[in-house]
Amino acid sequence: MLKIAASRLNELFDAIAEKQTLYIPVDREPNTAEYKKYESGMTMSSALNTVRSAKDFFFPQTENLAEFKVEGKSIEVKDIRQENEDFVVFGVRACDARSFSILDKVFLSEPVDSFYKNRRDHGTIVTMACTKPAETCFCTVFGIDPTVPEGDVSVFSDGENYFFLDRTEKGTEFVKSVENFLEEGDAAKLAQVQEQARSVIKKLPLAGLSTDSFGGDKLNEHFNSEKWAELSEACIGCGTCTFVCPTCQCYDIRDFDTGHGIKRFRCWDSCMYSDFTKMAHGNPRTSQLERFRQRFMHKLVYFPANNDGEFGCVGCGRCLAKCPISMNIVKVMKALEVK
Amino acid sequence: MQVNNDFQPVIVAFCCNWCSYAGADLSGTNRLNYPANVKIIRVPCSCRVNPMFILRAFQKGADGVIICGCHPGDCHYTSGNYYTRRRITLLYSMLDFLGIERNRTRLEWVSAAEGAKFAAVMNSFVDEVKKLGPNRRLEDLRCRKQ
Amino acid sequence: MQEAMIKRAKELLADGTVNRVMGWKKGEFAYDITPAVFDTAEELEQDFVCDDLTQANVSKYLIKESRKEGRILAFLKPCDTYSFNQLIKEHRIIRENVYVIGIPGGPKIDVEKIKAKGITGILSVKNEDYTLKIETIYGTETMPFYEAISGKCESCKSKKHVVYDELMGEEGDVLDSNRFDMVEKLENMTAQERYDFWRGELSKCIRCNACRNVCPACTCESCVFDNPASGISQKAAADSFEENMFHIIRAFHVAGRCTDCGECSRVCPQNIPLHLLNRKFIKDINSLYGEYQAGADTTSRAPLTDYKADDCEPSVVHERGAE
Lengths: 339, 146, 323
Prior knowledge:
Chain A has helices spanning 9-19, 94-107, 114-122, 169-177, 188-203, 219-223, 227-232, 240-244, 288-306, 318-322, 329-336; strands spanning 2-5, 21-29, 32-37, 62-71, 74-79, 87-92, 123-128, 153-157, 161-166, 183-184, 251-257, 262-268. By secondary structure, chain A is of the alpha+beta class. Chain A has 2 domains: 2-201, no CATH class; 216-336, no CATH class. In chain A, the strands form 2 sheets. Chain A has an 8-stranded mixed β-sheet. In chain A, strands 5-4-12-11 form a 4-stranded antiparallel β-sheet, with no helix packed on it. Chain B has helices at residues 20-29, 51-59, 80-97, 115-132, and strands at 11-16, 38-43, 64-69, 105-109. The longest helix of chain B is centred in the middle third of the chain and has 18 residues, at 80-97. In chain C, strand 6 and strand 7 form a beta hairpin. Chain C starts with a helix and ends in a 5-residue tail after the last helix. Chains in contact: A-B, A-C, B-C. The interface between A and B is small, with 5 and 6 residues.
C-alpha cells in the first residue's frame, strides 16, 4: 500500500493546498476539533472527531439561494449560483463518511438539489480510519466499519505512517496527484493496529445496541408508544442534537430584507423548534413530545421506510456528548426496544 | 484605519415626542444648522427605545446612534426617561464590552426649548462618528450597499 | 448523600407530602445524567442519581411541574435555589406546589474537562480523596479533582440556600467569589482586543438556542427570537451581526434577573463563555446601582424596573477614557 511518514504529512498538505482548498480538523481547544481551511504550519487534530459534523461542506448551515431587487413594480431575480471550486476534506471519520451517502439519498434524488450536487461534485473526501473509538461510538450498529472508512480515499494510520487506499475514480485521481510524496510501504504493523482497534470496538459499551426493533415497517409499534412522554419530558427544545448531527437534513427557506433588496437563504432547521414546518394554520406538532418523537421516528422509521431500510443515524455519538440534558438516540432505542 | 475625508456617517437619532423632537423642530425653525446625515426617528418616549432598535439601526447601516429624551424629572410620563437611563447605560456598557467603539453611541437630554442644544449635540456627534469612520464591528455585511 | 436523598424522598412519597419527585436519572455512562420526574419508590431506587457529575439545574422544570396536580419534591443545590426564588418572584412557579429540600452544592465535575485531557472511553468516574479515578475502555486513568471542576462551580457565588422547606447537610454562606475576574480582565483590554475576543467566541455559535432554552430566567411563553415578524434569523448563523444581536439581546433580557447559575455556558456545545455577558451586566449593576443578587429574595425591586433620581448618566461609559 502507498504510504507517507507521519512526520511528512504537512508536506503533503502543503502540496494539496497549493492546488485546491484543503480542510483538515484542527484543535480549537484541547480535544475540541473543528474543520479549518488548511494554512501552512497547521497541525491536524488528534481528537477522535470534530464537534460539528462534516456535513457543512456540502450542506452548510446557511447559504444564499437567490437575490431579488425590487424597484417600483418590477422585481429582478438574480441567480447567484456559481460553479464551486474543487476542494479536499481530509480526516473525515467513517461515521461522517457514511452520512454523505444518507444526505445523497435526500439531496441527489429527484428533484436534484443543485446547490448540494455542485459541492458534492467538487469535493474529494479523504477519510481517516479510527484507532481509538470513544464510549459514545456506536457506528457498528449501523453496519459501519470504522477501521475501514468509506470515502474517495481512505487513510489508515499505524502510528508512524499514513497509508492511502483509493476507492473511487476521484480518489484515484487524488492519490495520483500526490504520488510524489507517497512510497510503497509495509502494512504489517497496520494490520496489527487495525486488529487492536477491532477488538476494542467489540467491547464498546454501546456495541450491543440492536436495530431489530426499528425499520420502515415499525410505525405502528412506536408511534403511539407511551414511552415518548417520559423520554421527551426533560427535552428543552433546543437544536443542539440536530445541528451537530451529520445526517439531519431539514432546512428552512427565508427571505432577508437588506434594505436595498432581498436575499433568499436557506438554513438548517430543527424539528425540536416550535416553528418547525409551521404553516398558515400553525405548527402541526404542537407539543415537545411530538417534536421529539419526530426526530427519532424520522431516523429510525420514516427514513428507512423511504430508503430501502437504511437508518438515518450513523452512530457518531455527537448528540450523546452534546445534549444539554443528555437525552439521545441510544436512550430512545433502548427504551423502545421490543424484546 | 483609513482616513476618508469624504465619509458622511449615517446617524440615527431616536427623539422623544415631547421634548427632543420638539427641540429638533425648534432648531429647524430657528434655522440652526445640523448635518443632514442625522435621521430622526420619533418615539413616544425615550423609554420606548428597545435595545434591539439600536442594534437594528447599526445592522442596517447606521454609523452612530443617539437617543434624545426629556431631562430627568421632566418626562411626560413621569419616569420613562429614568428607566431609559439605566437601560441605555447598561446597553452601552455592554457594547463597549464587546469592543464596539464607545463613541458610536450617545444619549442626550434635550428639552423642547433647547433647539440650540439639539443642533450643537448633533454637530458634535457627527464629528465624533466621522473620526471613527464607518461602522464595521456591528454591521451586517448583507446590508452593505455594494 | 444520594442514599439519604432517596430515603427521604421515599418517606415523603409514602406519607403523601408529595406525589412526585424532581431529580436526575442515571444514563448509559457515568456522566449522561438526565433531569427526570419520579413517581414511585421503585423508580427512585432504580434510576435516581445525585453525584459529583450531576450538574443540571432543575428549577426551570418546576414552572411546568408546579402547575400539575399535587405537590412535587425538588432537590435544589444552593445555586438552584436562587433560580427557583427568582422564578417565584416572577410568579412563574407556584410555591405551594413544590416541596424544596436544599442539598449541598458542588463542586461538580464536568466530564468535558476530563475529555479535554485526552481521556476517552470513559466508563466511570470516582472521586477518591480528591483524585479522580476514571475507568476507561483503555484502562484506568487518574487526574486531580480540582482540574475537572465544572466552570460554574469554579467561581461559586454562594453555598447558602435562599429558599427551602428542609435542608440536608449543613447550611453554607454567601461566598466572596472571584467570579468577576475574567470580566475585569476583558474590561482592561483595548476595544480591539475585546472585539477580537468576542468575535472569536461568538463566531463559534451555531444558533442551537441551548443557552436560551436551558436558562431559568428565559421563561417567555414566546421568545422574541422566535417571532417571524421580528426580522431575526432565529436559527441561521447568517451573519456575524446576528450572533452579536442574539447574545447581546438575550443577555440584556435577563439582566437584573440572571442569578448567574452558569447553565448557559455549561450547555453550550461550542463552549462559548456566555456567562461572561451576564456577569458583565451583574457587575455593572452592582457598581452603578448598588449590590444586587437576583433570586436572593422575592420582594426587592429589580434594578431595571427601578431607578433613582441621581442615577449616573450613560456617559459613564464614554468617560472610561480613550480606547
